[in-house]
Amino acid sequence: MAASLPQKPGMAGMPSQQQQQPPHLPPGAAPSAGQQPMPPQGALREISPVFLCRIGQETVQDIVTRTMEIFQITRATQLPNGVTQSQATYQDRFGKLQEHLRQLTLLFKKLRLLYERCVEMTSDLKEGPAELVPYAGEELVSVRVEPCSPAVIQERNEVLEKLRQKNQEMKVLMDQMRNLLWDVNAMLTLRK
């Protein structure tokens, strides 16, 4: 099956290239044009999740690029408020917008396939993505702490002691500054 590659910015006038989709990618997940060539199927038995994540990162970058191009096209388009422009200009811009939106749909489908394949490949891991990166508003799960060496524990205790001393010094300075400000304010009120 041949898959049409999305054109990179600045290549709008060039015809889209046709490539044979590698057998190791999920269906509908065409490699991007800037991607390095893949090793043959015999050399690589199974694609690693890290490699799929790299392809996903490139796909997200393509999605962001296409979205920025859509915003640039819409910013350059004038509203039809009495100004007459050629119908061909509007049709050209509309065609570009339609093509970008079609490519965005394909890129999101590719990203979804990559995500599902990564989840499928990493289902045997002990910690899932939800445990590694907490969502906003979600309670943090307690983290297992491995026992440290005595040297590390001693260094930590020394740092904590220095921190306590500095905090005490800062407290004394703040109290002195507060008393000084009280005295200055009292003297100013007596002057008046």
TrEMBL record:
Keywords: Activator, Coiled coil, Nucleus, Transcription, Transcription regulation. The gene is LOC102193237. Residues 9-22 have a biased composition (Low complexity). Component of the Mediator complex, a coactivator involved in the regulated transcription of nearly all RNA polymerase II-dependent genes. Mediator functions as a bridge to convey information from gene-specific regulatory proteins to the basal RNA polymerase II transcription machinery. Mediator is recruited to promoters by direct interactions with regulatory proteins and serves as a scaffold for the assembly of a functional preinitiation complex with RNA polymerase II and the general transcription factors. This is Mediator of RNA polymerase II transcription subunit 30. One of its GO terms (molecular function) is transcription coregulator activity. Residues 1-41 are annotated as: Disordered. It is found in: Nucleus. Signal peptide: none annotated. GO terms for biological process: positive regulation of DNA-templated transcription. The keyword Electron transport does not apply. The lineage of its organism: Eukaryota, Metazoa, Chordata, Craniata, Vertebrata.
